[in-house]
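Checked the freezer inventory, then went back to the computational side. Two predictions to log before the end of the day. The first one is the construct we discussed on Monday; recording sequence and tokens without edits.
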Amino acid sequence: MSSDVKENIKSQSTWIRGLYMLLYIVFATLADIILFAVILFQFLLQLFTGETNERLRKLGQGLSTYIYQVLQFLSFNSDYHPYPFGAWPKGEPRPSRSGEDSGKT
């Protein structure tokens, strides 16, 4: 094993990020389940009343943006720590630009 590989394996920052990644996988899974419930409920509201709930639309947007932020972090496209270590997202995600952390909403 080369010395670079040994140094990378011993890198504390990589292992800490790995722990954050495991935690965010759990959070994203919970957010997926909640978002699925919002989607189903909104569909049923639309089906039976012809309208959707504004507060649930905002929740759905927040959850969608949050999941996007988590996926950006998990795929190493961002170093930004989403909620609960960062702010809860407001609105749609910002487009990512090269060399810049995306998802900082």
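The second is the one RB wanted added to the comparison set:
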Amino acid sequence: MPHSPTIFFEDIREGEERRFGGHTITEVEILEFAECYDPQYFHIDPEAAKFSHFGGLIASGWHTASLSMRMIVDHFLEQTASMGSPGVDELRWLVPVRPGDTLAVHVRVDEARPSKSKPDRGLVRTSYTTINQRNEAVMTMKAAGFFERRRP
């Protein structure tokens, strides 16, 4: 399916903020993800997790990051002329994510500048905060992304 972006680098403004998402995580999702990618006992064994310092089953931080990325793509990046990312500068897991939590993402554009070496794109630095239904920050991430310019 061809991608027809409506948001280009020129449309992204420093200080711009968005909030989106609303994914409720289930115990089954936590167990399935952890079995494949992070099989620590407090992610894969609800009974043993009760005796951990978390006091119960929690989602892997990588699961939280993956769910956050999915919401970012679904509600923002799929509309943009994204050219990918050179990387993440900072990733923090602050509060455990538990079965039944509903996650949303808040994004703030910290910097948007044209590339000096590649005139067809601009670099956008963003801060992401994933929050739960109690408005607690469960994860923060600072990242950069390249976006195609409408008029290089």
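For RB: The mean pLDDT is 96. The two ends are 25 Å apart (CA to CA). Let me know if you want it refolded.
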